[in-house]
Amino acid sequence: MSLHAGLEPGDGLDFEFSIHRVPAESIDGLEASVLWATEGKGSEDIGVHYFERLSGTQLSQRPLQEPRMLSTKLPLCPLSYEGRLMKIRWCVRLRLFLKGGREISAEQPFYLGHVTREV
Q: Are 14 and 72 spatial neighbours (Cβ–Cβ below 8 Å)?
């Protein structure tokens, strides 16, 4: 997975990924999402900005190692935040669902906006 470290609200996010070392016949599906989550004191929230699910059949229509593109326009908020009591973090998440119930997950974090840090 590859992604720029910082993006601005309203920017387009183009994210390229490929799958290696997993045989196509062992895959049930893939979920790709762009999301934000809060961390810290109190309840934690999650918001999904973009979501796409591909079935094993859809994935097998071309080689897994061939790059695939995820594209979306980023929202205006919430912006990334790094506070002492709370943080807002953005990431692209890929979840690969394997036959037999196993799951492989990978996340690529990024900042939305200029990161505000509590001093």
A: no
